[in-house]
Amino acid sequence: MNKNGIHNVIFKISTVLILLISISISSISSAFAANVSNKLPFDDITNSYAQKEIVRLAGLNILNGTSPRTFSPQKPVTRAEFIVMINRLLQLEPVDIAIAAFTDVRKNDWYYGWIQAGLNLGIVDGVRPGIFEPQKQISRQEVAALIVRAAKMKSGSTSSSLPFVDSNKVASWAVPYVYAIHKNSIMSGEGNKFRPNDAMTRQETAVVLSRILDTAFGVSVSKNQQTTVIQMGWQYDSTTTQFINQIKSSKINTLVPRWFYLENNGVVSDNSNKELMTFASQYNKKIWAMLGNRSNSELTHTILSSSITRNKVIQQLTSYVQKYKLAGINVDFEGVNPVDRDNLTAFISTLSNELHKIGAVLSIDVSPDLGTDWTEGFDYAKLGKSADYVVLMSYDEHWSTSPKAGSVSSLPWVEKALNKLILSVPSKKVIMALPFYTRDWAYTPKGVTSEELSLLLQNQRIRAVNAKISWNDTTGNYVATYSKLGIKHNIWAEDSRSLSIKAHMAANKGIAGYGYWYMGAESLDIWAAIRNVVKYSAY
Question: Is 57 within 8 Å of 82 (Cβ atoms)?
Fold first, then answer.
């Protein structure tokens, strides 16, 4: 073989070697890339500027993909999708609310409960009354508003100065939120532009939500420290088995069975139930057995006006507490005459002292102080010093025979009553009782009449009569309107939204917990809503 032949052979061998090496390198690179991709939760985020944030939030189950291996980082986010992400970040749970807020958000929509949960806490609202537009792409200024409300940031004002060249494009309602979101370094815009009306992409959303988690508020959320508040529920018109089942389906930790009543000559009748005691012990529930007077003003006066009879009642109660190993007593005296004011105070003071000696607590139920004879018998300040807890019965604003129709528990009325009570009683000793009932008002030619409804019956009736529903911002209720036999009817509904608003307001004042009159009258969605209030209020 000549030199040229040898060179050709060498050249061919070299070419083959180079080709083999190239294939090997390519294979290794492909394998490496595949390995990197497999370590990521999605295959299409390798080149995303939000890769780190997407991985973080996917691991926390705040963000999901558009398919098992696809995230679609540049895809716009809808209004429904964003509120679901926010709720998951806040570790809230969906609320299958009984009265739908929006006609375009149906019960079988996957986001139904999530939107209602955000609505209950005042985080989200519709684009107009009754309309949410869940599939509409959410704008950056809408995102700003939702985040500021959700993360409890202090917003600016409509006159706040924005540092963006396109500030004039920010809607007037959004200015306070855009100002706050920029000030808190959550959203900064791009190229000195905020782009308020642009759709928010999924990768932008990942960055923004990740920044929230790094704030002090986000750290509080991440710790998810469980706040224990008193949740007391009264037994009424139910068997022990029914009451136990009602407790199991709720978050009630303090049971209030109506066991003890004042009788003639200072006798305290005993209707205690061993089955309930056993259940409470097994499930770590407290029992504050109720002492009632059956609204008998005369009998109450006879007993309270005699120190001997008062002490007789107290001795029996302490004996029952010891015998049944009760955690406390709940005193529910209604219709107390103004003349018995000092004697009631003395009774509560002595009873509290005796219960404390045996390790039990005392709570007393009071109505809102409206400056009438109905509440003149209660010295709130002195009762608050003696009792461990004062329970505000925040209902019956419009009572059964009220000459005027209206809410049983409107937000302004409840807040006014609570504000007045905590002027006399420390908020940490106040329990706010919420109504699990409402009234159906009929406007007859002779005046208004009412029918009391449990919340279960309320919901059934609203559906059965196909009532027209509208939200009343002033009272904090849905108002249902319908006609029957030519007579107009109104129901100021109590539901998970109205109750959440009241509970959230009270939580912000630092109260000790909530009571519910009465167990078994509620729809089950209320418990998820209250759990959300307790959790969100603790952040």
Answer: no
Q: How far apart are CA 480 and CA 227, in angstroms?
A: 35
Give the end of a domain, one of 164, 189, 223.
Answer: 223
324 exposure class (CB count in 10 Å sphere: 0-12, 13-18, 19+): middle
Cα 350 off chain centre by = 37
Whether residues 241 and 358 fall in one domain: yes
pTM of the model: 0.91
Q: What is the four-CA torsion angle of 240, 290, 451, 397, rounded to 10 degrees?
A: -150
Strands lying side by side in the sheet with 437-444: 447-454, 437-444, 487-493, 477-484, 468-472
Which SS3 state, helix, strand or coil, does residue 460 take? helix
**12 vs 8: CA distance, rounded Å:** 6
DSSP per residue over 370-390, as a string? -SSHHHHT--HHHHHHHSSEE
pLDDT tens digits for range 361-398:
999 999 999 888 889 999 999 999 999 999 999 999 99
What whole-number distance in Å separates Cα of residue 268 and Cα of residue 261? Answer: 5
DSSP character string of 286-303 = EEEEEEE-TT-HHHHHHH
Domain count, the chain: 2
Per DSSP, the three-state class of 443 is: strand
Same domain, 219 and 279: no
Nearest to 496 by CA among 460, 473, 523: 523
- Residue 235 shares a structural domain with residue 184: no
Separation between Cα atoms, residue 356 and residue 54, nearest integer Å: 55
- Count of residues for the chain? 539
HSE (side-chain half, CA atoms, 13 Å) at 390: 30
Flag whether pLDDT at 24 surpasses 90: no
